[in-house]
Amino acid sequence: LLSSVEFIILPHFHFKVFHCFNNHCQISGTSFLIQKMFTFKMSFFINLTILLTFTTIHGVIIDNLIIGEPEVECGTDSMLVSLNTKEPFEGHVYVKGHYDTPGCRTDGTNNKTAKISIPYSNCDVRRQRTSSPAGVFLSTIVVITFHPMFVTKVDRAYNVKCFYMAADKVVSSDLEVRELPSFQSDDVQSMNSLLLSTLATELITQTVEMPECKYEVLSDGPTGQAIKYATVGQQVYHKWSCSSEAVDVYCMTVHSCSVEDGQGRRVLLLDENGCPQDKYLMANLNYPTDLAAQVDSMVFKFADKPSLFFQCQIRLSLKTDGECKRTSDDCNTLKKMKREIFAGKKGENVDVFSDTMVVLDVDDGYATLEDLKKLQALRNSNMHNTIVTEAENGVCLSSISFGILVSIVGLLLLTSISASVMVCLRRDRTTLKK
Q: Environment class of residue 33 by beta-carbon count within 10 Å: exposed (0-12), middle (13-18) or buried (19+)?
């Protein structure tokens, strides 16, 4: 990328940084205007034009990469992730958020292979029960870094999942089949009566698939976009929904909701009955339909933790007498209704997760809500290599290039001033000799 900046020494000095965003700065006044008057028994103006061409400086990229796709082996109490690299591996393989947790990281040994065994009882492996297909998903994010100390451009992250299908339950019973007795043709009425009493009734069944459920944290109401970045105190919209081909069959109850930081810390928001534990964080849920729930809340975060996500369970049960009876219908009288509520907890449970949300502190003045919206749009459009700017004719620089540019400008200015002083001194000496 070649860019040019023109420096003109004229009657004034002007330099302005227009916008800084995502560790990049944009310069909107590219003319450096300086006036300097030297008086050595004479006065004159110096007009000097300098054209400076600079290039973006790139570091040396690590010459290593992953060959093929990592292999995953699902065990009874852990998962094994194996990978092959182009060159000897000197970096690390670890579970995201657990770099310093024992058992959640392996270090490179200068071989072209790397492995990590992730125990299910550690490293915050997610467990997600599903109804269609019936079973349990165990998932986590594995990060592969090639540099022994830092995360670089060539590093990779994989969402690794193991699915354990639930065992089918087979119900059987013995059936005794008897032959029909013989009858005389003149005893038809007796034969019909006996047939009605001995013939088995054919059982016709229809299978209805369980609903598929999801959990979203949205901006600007139920039709907003899923939030990836937010600030503390921003209003968001929690939405749980299930889709089913069957009409007026199932009823959903959201319960056992918690918020997690991805590093082992968890706080309960809704109990097993679907009642809120802290109404300042999450209030009573509203159920507009049988298979939908919603609630408004304000964004919060863990102290000194950059991100969080929500996990909930959805209980799917059959409607009773055409109505949905939920354990969260009357949370105020929960203690009095404890027995009735306990009896109403029958149903199939599924786990749902929200997307991970990056939350900035209140005093993060360098990032405004507008900046976050731009960052959100940037991520949604997969334009990770594009810098969002507001000026059409501006020049975008990284922070390193910006610092180098300022240093070069200062050096050029000092050189120009020194040269001007030397020229003036020589002319002054020549005048004195004459």
A: middle
What is the spatial distance between Cα 240 and Cα 179, in angstroms, rounded to a whole number? 56
269 near 283, Cβ under 8 Å? no
Q: Which residues, at least 6 apart from 212, have a Cβ–Cβ distance to it below 8 Å? A: 131, 132, 242, 243, 244
Task: Give the chain's domain count.
Answer: 3
Whether 280 and 397 map to the same domain: the answer is no
pTM score, whole prediction: 0.57
H and E: helices and strands count for the chain: 4, 25
* Chain segment 62-120, per-residue pLDDT in tens: 888 899 989 999 998 899 999 999 999 999 999 998 999 889 999 998 999 999 999 99
Q: How far apart are CA 402 and CA 408, in angstroms?
A: 10
Domain annotation covers residue 153 = yes
* Range(s) of the domain holding residue 154: 66-165
Q: Are residues 224 and 350 in the same domain?
A: yes
Query: 421 and 323 in one domain?
Result: no
Query: What digits encode the pLDDT tens for the residues 306-360?
Result: 889 999 999 998 888 888 888 888 887 755 555 444 445 667 888 899 988 888 8
